[in-house]
Write a structure and sequence with these properties.
CATH architecture of the largest domain in chain A: Orthogonal Bundle
Number of helices of chain A: 12
CATH superfamily of the largest domain in chain B: Periplasmic binding protein-like II
Largest sheet of chain A: none
Number of domains of chain B: 2
CATH architecture of the largest domain in chain B: 3-Layer(aba) Sandwich
CATH class of the largest domain in chain A: Mainly Alpha
Strand order of the largest sheet of chain B: 2-1-3-14-6
Structural class of chain B: alpha/beta
Helix content of chain B: 40-55%
Number of strands of chain B: 15
Strand content of chain B: 5-15%
Oligomer: heterodimer
Radius of gyration of chain A: 24 Å
Distance between the termini of chain B: 41 Å
Shape of chain A: globular
Distance between the termini of chain A: 10 Å
Number of domains of chain A: 2
Structural class of chain A: mainly alpha
CATH topology of the largest domain in chain B: D-Maltodextrin-Binding Protein, domain 2
Order of helices and strands of chain A: HHHHHHHHHHHH
Number of strands of chain A: 0
CATH class of the largest domain in chain B: Alpha Beta
CATH topology of the largest domain in chain A: MetI-like fold
Chain lengths: 299, 449
Amino acid sequence: MTTSLRTVNPKARRGFSITRPRKSAALTVVMLLFLIYAVVPLLWLVINASKTQADLFTTFGLGFGDSFALWDNIVATFTYRDGIFLRWLGNTLLYVVAGAGGATLLATLAGYGLAKFTFPGKKLYFAVVLGAVAVPGTALAVPTFLLFSQMGLTNTPWSIIIPSLITPFGLYLIWVYTIDSVPTELLEAARLDGASELRTFFTISLKLLTPGVVTVALFSVVATWNNYFLPLIMLSDPAWYPLTVGLNQWSSQASGVAAEPIYNLVITGSLITIVPIVIIFLFLQRFWQSGLSAGSVKQ
Amino acid sequence: MFNLNKGPRRGRGAAALAVAGLAAMSLVACSTGPGAGAGAGSASDLDAALEKGGELTYWTWTPSGEAQAEAFMKEYPNVEVTVVNAGTATDQYTKLQNAITAGSGAPDVAQIEYYAIQQFALSEGLLDLSSYDFGELEDKYTPSTWSAVNLNGGIYGLPQDSGPMVMFYNTTVFDQFGLSVPTTWDEYIATAAKLHEADPSKYITNDAGDPGFAQPLIWQAGGHPYQADGTDVTINLQDEGTKRWADTWNQLLEPGLLSDIPTWSDDWYKALGDGSLATIVTGAWMPGVLESSLPEGAGHWRVAPLPSYDGSAATAENGGSAQSVIKQSKNPALAAAFLRWLNSSDESVDVFLENGGFPSTTAQLNADEFLNATPEYFGGQEINKVLVDASANVVDGWEYLPFQVYANSVFADTVGQAYANRSDLNTGLLAWQDNLITYGNSQGFTASE
């Protein structure tokens, strides 16, 4: 798509331009509604993480309770059942580093290779990857479970890490990004100077690809961090649970015979769970934006 | 308000779908007939296995699970039991069904609620324990819990707890509005109307549509909606007893006398704490939950027998679990020996009692110390007398479906619609029945009305 300047009315009143558009009351209201929609649940989470369970059951949801127990809740979350929450946090980190890290590496190598090299079967391979983008991971969870179960891999960290390594969408993104931002002439110059393909990749191409790689990494990190369904069916030993499945277990122990509700710990645990992902997002969001818009404007 | 349970519920729905996919492969296994007896030995094997020792994995969500396993290992130091909390109820069944279908990854012993035992027994998941002479243990248990594990001519587990239904009521609310404790459902409906009229923010109880609540009440009403004979299944959710429940419950549902707060949600605990729900109709295991999870309710709650349809003392079982030996176990004799100790020895059941459980063993239920207890939480009432009375009055002959876990998972889509619209429950029951017959036939059963 090309950005056309002709859409801007030259007779528009002074003070408005394409970089400083006219303010729209309706749009502002819509945006404020979306802001409330996004912020209120977060606010609720922060407020209620500061309540004891008794306060949770007796005080208004968006107001503070009779006591401020945030610190007590955090301590209790990390010490409940011999500190299983810390173990879950460690598991999630393991799955993110190994799974999302590996996924990013593989997607980068494969996407770059597909964009810059020709080899037999390339078109078929690319068609398969594109087709795989359309298949939701949830649909593959049960077949993957049966497969892994035959291989004796269920209930091990491998059953989470191996499926997380594959990200067809990430591969596709890197392919698009490589075509746009790594000029073939540059690679030819490097080859003429005698650089090996690997050296060219690591010293030249990778630097040009950084925004794309970070975007793929962010996608994978968020997907792995929030992964719920795959670990739910793969794992039965709570010692290997990630935070998502573990928190659900805490939440569901509020029901049935011998119910032991720990809603205050579920809420505090949820708050602790989203903090790292919020930090990662704030830290890397400029890459996210430039990565997302890659290929949308022809230069 | 925000309902914390909504997220997990959705997750459970997805998990139910997954288990449905796997179950498609597993439930038909029942056509080979139950109790092939693979791996089963004789009673003398059990003591030998305990002597020899070995390792066991035990899946449970019972709070006393760890403590019981530790007591066991102290007595039998050669055995190592690993206790795993693989999830509560349906979360665990999904994993268990998956592991059984996959042929590996299941524990040696697992906790299974009574309503789900038939399903796991028929899908060849559980070991028939009759060859270990477990039949001799029958006298130790209440008749209703024993009949829940004694299925298709086999013994597929040993009962742990039981949940004969009773009515808990908030005496402060009852006094405030001058209500008397209802003994029949007609009185219950009148009390509900009187309370809600006097204070529209208060309800007699909550019911957002819960199969674990509706079915025991159908049971109490004398309904026998499910009958299974091998793979022939009859489902009639319009039999006399079932209609009796639906017609009674309609009188609470249609005029809006029931709160629609989902049971076990944070809102529900809140409503119990602030007196907006005046009664809880549930199993005899509830005192332990109230005392540990609702400290602000201390002194307000009392126990009464379940209101009746016709003045008789009939009641039903709500909840409760057995433990079963999984057929996959590599050491079935040791697993059976552990199970025998877990659910029939005094040492183990006492640990269970200390943790607030309500047992199924008559020795503990009829002990004087238990019967004469006067917990302060219940204003010094001798509540166990009421609860134990109920355990003797459970209507016999109730059967669950051989695909009850699935059946419960689609209750919300069918009968739940009648709850949501406050319309005739009979219509919802018919929709449920159609769904179950279609599903049963797709699973290799011959299901009919």
